TrEMBL record:
Region (Disordered): 356-376
UniProt keyword annotations, A-Z: FAD, Flavoprotein, Monooxygenase, Oxidoreductase
Name of the protein in question: Salicylate hydroxylase
The FAD-binding domain, residue ranges: 4-360
């Protein structure tokens, strides 16, 4: 029997969708291009808009050892390191937005989702790189690089920024280069011995942000506090490698932040390995779905990292998509009606596209906030940061499932 749903890509969004569908009795197979799942990536922030969904799925409990719950967010002067704006997080954040905020190593989050999916009997095919999809009235054929193929009633493209499924749905597109690149890495806490004396207490974890003229740095603990994630963004028209795993050098990052404060130098110098990542996104696509195919996460709406919402939006997509599809796919051994699937995919897209488009644009604008020049632009930014919790409520206070329930088809 062919699977009801083929999920192309075993990332955070693809696995979350697969777990949600599998639990509702939908036959799912996840196809992943990697032949082995290895720990990759660095830190991600999981806001209340995603953690409330993970908690409803019973997935958040397993994160307690791997994730960190920051107690505050601090903005520091680029030249002195002095705190100029701070907001409490921890319980205060959870009371405000209804769910916790975590920072976690992407590899830990991925492993926990994968363990859950496999433990619950989910089907996974490794070494299956999708190179083409072909839809007809009876289903979708998924063709792989090794010449093999499979058919499914529905295909979900969770295959990232270079999505084959997106190109089949929306045609070829060109990445939009931001003119910046990011140095990203992880620093073991033992390589940061001076942080406490510089005012960074590891027993009270925080998000540390250093906005500055033309560049900025963001840092926070992950992996139970054993590692500190660092992202340093600089103007860079020459580095155009669209990959967050391309190698970089800590010395280059240090040179790019010459003249900044001691904490920035310590964080950059403490990274064990560094990736250099040209920052691209893409223009919002006009459609995500056909009668039997759809997209989620970066395949649908790749965005710059300046709102910290990439993984969060993939989780929102996944849960909403599963809710939309479950009604027409669960307990249907005789097959599904194409019009019912198409209606479910239209509903999913109509709910998700406006929000993700808004976040794509907000992520572009936020770089200007982080990299405002000294003087009046920085003073205007500082005044806005006082109201940060209020200004971010539309992101972190959002309940994707409630929005779906309120949405009329």
């Amino acid at each position: 029997m062919r699977p009801t749903v083929a999920v192309v890509g075993a990332g955070i969004g693809g696995l979350t969708a697969a777990i949600a569908l599998h639990r509702r009795g939908v036959e799912v197979v996840v196809h992943e291009q990697a032949s082995a799942l290895t720990p990759l990536g660095a830190g991600i922030a999981v806001g209340a808009n995603a953690s409330r969904l993970l908690r409803r799925m019973g997935l958040l409990d397993t994160w307690s050892e791997a994730a960190v719950r920051p107690q505050r967010i601090q903005f520091h002067r680029w030249h002195s390191g002095r705190v100029f704006c701070s907001h409490e997080m921890g319980d205060t954040y959870e009371e405000m937005f209804g769910a916790p905020f975590y920072t976690v190593h992407r590899a830990d989050a991925h492993r926990l989702l994968m363990d859950t999916y496999v433990r619950e009997g989910g089907a996974l095919e490794l070494g299956h790189r999708c190179v083409a999809v072909a839809e007809d009235e009876h289903g979708v054929e998924v063709i792989f690089a090794d010449g093999s193929a499979t058919r499914a009633e529905v295909v979900v493209g969770a295959d990232g920024v270079h999505s084959v499924v997106r190109e089949a749905l929306a045609g070829p597109d060109r990445p939009v280069f931001s003119g910046t690149s990011g140095y990203r890495g992880l620093a073991p806490v033992e390589r940061l011995p001076r942080l406490p004396e510089l005012g960074f207490d590891p027993t009270r974890p925080a998000l540390w942000l250093f906005p500055g003229p033309g560049r900025h740095l963001i840092s926070y603990p992950v992996s139970g506090g054993r590692l500190v994630n660092v992202l340093a963004v600089i103007p860079d028209e020459e580095w155009t490698v669209e990959s967050w795993s391309a190698r970089g050098e800590a010395a280059e990052a240090l040179a790019a932040f010459a003249g900044w404060n001691e904490v920035v130098a310590a964080l950059l110098g403490g990274m064990e390995s560094v990736s250099r990542w040209a920052l691209y996104d893409r223009e919002p696509v006009r459609r995500w779905s056909s009668a039997r195919m759809t997209l989620l996460g970066d395949a649908a709406h790749p965005m710059l990292p300046h709102q910290g919402q990439g993984a969060n939006q993939a989780i929102e997509d996944a849960v909403v998509l599963a809710d939309c599809l479950a009604g027409c796919l669960s307990d249907r051994p005789a097959g599904v009606r194409q019009d019912e699937v198409a209606a479910a995919l239209r509903r999913y897209e109509s709910v998700r596209r406006p929000r993700t488009r808004q976040l794509q644009m907000a992520s572009r604008r936020n770089r200007e906030c982080f990299q405002a020049p000294d003087g009046a632009p920085a003073e205007e930014r500082d005044a806005r940061l006082v109201h940060l919790p209020r200004d971010l409520a539309w992101i972190h206070g959002h309940d994707a499932q409630r929005e779906l329930a309120d949405h009329a088809d």
